[in-house]
Amino acid sequence: MIQAILEKKIKIVNGEGQETFVPESIANDDAMLKRLLASFYGTDNFRLERKEENGETVVHVIKMAGTKGVASLPLAVLLDCPGG
């Protein structure tokens, strides 16, 4: 716990321009960082992009468009419903 407090922090920027800082050990592990961010966003449908800005690593979170609904073939589902 104390190590995480003393550890270097990496800036995380999301698409809305909000910034937060996380310990470097978490920011450098894509799986762990995605799990952490998914708890805030309610989804893991985003991409992580690392850039050097002013000599510091900055992680940008780019949300990706997801699928809508659950029916892969809506017409087939509707035809199978009672009453056609």
Describe the structure.
- With 84 residues, the chain is of the alpha+beta class.
- The chain is 33% helix and 31% strand.
- It is built from 4 helices and 4 strands; from the N terminus they run αββααββα.
- A 4-stranded mixed sheet has the order 2-1-4-3.
- β1 and β2 (19-23) form a beta hairpin.
- The model has no long low-confidence stretch (mean pLDDT 82).
Write the layout of secondary structure elements.
Elements: H1 2-6, E1 9-13, E2 19-23, H2 24-27, H3 30-41, E3 46-53, E4 56-63, H4 74-80
Task: List descriptors.
84 residues, alpha+beta, four-stranded mixed sheet, 4 helices, elongated
Largest sheet descriptor: 4 strands, mixed
Radius of gyration: 19 Å
Write the H/E string, N to C.
Answer: HEEHHEEH
Please report which band the strand proportion falls in: under 5%, 5-15%, 15-25%, 25-35%, 35-45% or over 45%. Answer: 25-35%
**Oligomer kind:** single chain
Main sheet: which strands, in order across?
2-1-4-3
Shape: elongated
Helical proportion, percent range: 25-40%
Total DSSP E strands: 4
First-to-last CA distance:
60 Å
* Count of helix runs: 4
By helix and strand content, what is the structural category? Answer: alpha+beta
**Which runs of at least 5 residues are low in confidence (pLDDT < 50)?**
none
Mean pLDDT: 82
